[in-house]
Amino acid sequence: MARRQYSRQIMIRKVDTPPEPSAESKLEWICECLGINPDDDLAREIFKALVRASEKGKGVSTRELTDRSHVTQGAIVYHMNVFMRSGMIVKQGRMYYLRASSLEDTIEEMENEMLAMMNRMRKIARLLEDEFRIQEGSPREE
Q1: Phi, psi of 89 (to 5 degrees)
Q2: What residues contact 31, with CB distance under 8 A and at least 6 apart?
Q3: Model pLDDT for residues 100-129, shown as the tens digit of each residue
Q4: 37 alpha carbon, distance to own chain's centre
Q5: Taking the model in full, what pTM does it have?
Q6: CB–CB of 29/17 below 8 Å?
């Protein structure tokens, strides 16, 4: 039996550009675009910690984040799992990292992954439509 590949859900929301150019509003905007609740203070703090760590070529551990934020390790792990399912971060050992060396590169990788998936879906759609036409006995229109 073939193993099912781990799937990610990359969500993109269309959100108006932030009206003020502050770093905090830009961070909230990126979070909201990626389906991360910008009102979730813990999610924002974790996201900031990940971006700051990536600037130094480092990752973060749940222990570090627990010590900084004074919340339970379970709450941190929950948010890390949300970020991993979204495709934003990866886990290596006990450390969590942005999936690329910078936030911009992470977003670019996510974009490439989505485009590749859309191309595969379009090819499968074409094959499926061809199968339906064959079943109905009608030729493909070019």
Answers
A1: -130, 165
A2: 37, 38, 43, 44, 47
A3: 999 999 999 999 999 999 999 999 999 999
A4: 13
A5: 0.78
A6: yes
Identify the burial level of 50 via C-beta atoms within 10 angstroms of its C-beta, where 0-12 means exposed, 13-18 middle and 19 or more buried: buried
Burial of 60 (0-12, 13-18, 19+ CB in 10 A): buried
CA distance 74 to 49: 17
* CATH code of the domain occupying 23-136: 1.10.10.10
Instruction: Indicate the domain borders of the chain.
Output: 23-136
In whole angstroms, how far apart are CA 92 and each of 52, 58, 136? 17, 11, 51
| Beta strands across the sheet bearing 89-92 | 60-61, 95-98, 89-92
pLDDT reading at 142 higher than 80: no
What share of the chain has pLDDT > 70, as a percent? 92
Tens of pLDDT, residues 66-92: 998 889 999 999 999 988 888 889 999
